[in-house]
Amino acid sequence: MKLTFTDTAIEALKKRDMTQSLSLFYYTDSDCGCPSSGIFALRSHDDLDTIYDAIVETNIGDIIAQKWALVYLDTDNVIDYKESQGTFILKSERGYLNMNLPVEDKRKDH
User: Fold this and answer.
1) Residues forming a β-bridge with 4
2) Residue 94 DSSP label
3) Which pLDDT score, from 0 to 100, does residue 34 have?
4) Fewest CB within 10 angstroms: 13, 50, 83, 93, which?
5) What is the dihedral of CA 67, 70, 76, 81, to 10 degrees?
6) Pairing state between β 95-101 and 2-5
7) 3-class SS at 80?
8) Domain residues of the chain, as ranges?
9) pTM
10) Nearest Cα to 32, choosing from 68, 65, 67, 75?
11) What b/e readout covers 51-61, taking b as 16+ CB neighbours within 10 angstroms?
12) What would the pLDDT profile of 12-32 be if each residue is shown by its tens digit?
C-alpha cells in the first residue's frame, strides 16, 4: 500500500503547522467495521498513540495508523488539497475515498 501527499496538500499542512507527528485514524460509528460506516481522518499530535499499530510510509515521512483499518485503502492512495473549497481529499485508483478528509490538530495547547 502506498500513500502520497500532493505538493498542494503538503503546503496546506505546512500552513497549519501539521507536517509532523501525523496519524491516519479511522472513525467508525458501528461495531461491524464496514467501510460504509466509517471515514478516515488525518491527525497531528494524537495522544491516543496506543491505538495505532501500523506504520505507513509516505513521501513526507512515516505516519502511524490502525492496522485493521488499512484494508479500506487501496494500493495507490493520495491525499490532495482542493484550494477552492479548503478541503483535503483522500483518493485512490478507485476514485474518491473521502472528498472532505477531516484534518485534526490534537495538540492540547493549540
Assistant:
1) 78
2) T
3) 54
4) 50
5) -100
6) unpaired
7) strand
8) 2-105
9) 0.88
10) 68
11) ebeeebebebe
12) 999 999 998 999 999 887 555
Q: Is the dihedral of CA 41, 19, 93, 95 positive or negative?
A: positive
Pick the CATH number of 2-105 from 3.90.25.10, 2.60.300.12, 3.30.1330.40, 3.40.50.620: 2.60.300.12
> Who contacts 45 (Cβ-Cβ below 8 Å, separation ≥6)?
20, 21, 105, 106, 107, 110
Compute the average pLDDT of residues 47-74: 92
The three grid cell numbers given for residue 104, joined into one nine-digit string:
485534526
Query: Measured in whole angstroms, how far is the alpha carbon of residue 69 from the centre of its chain?
Result: 11
Cell 509516505 maps to which residue?
Answer: 58
Instruction: Give the cell for residue 11.
Output: 503546503
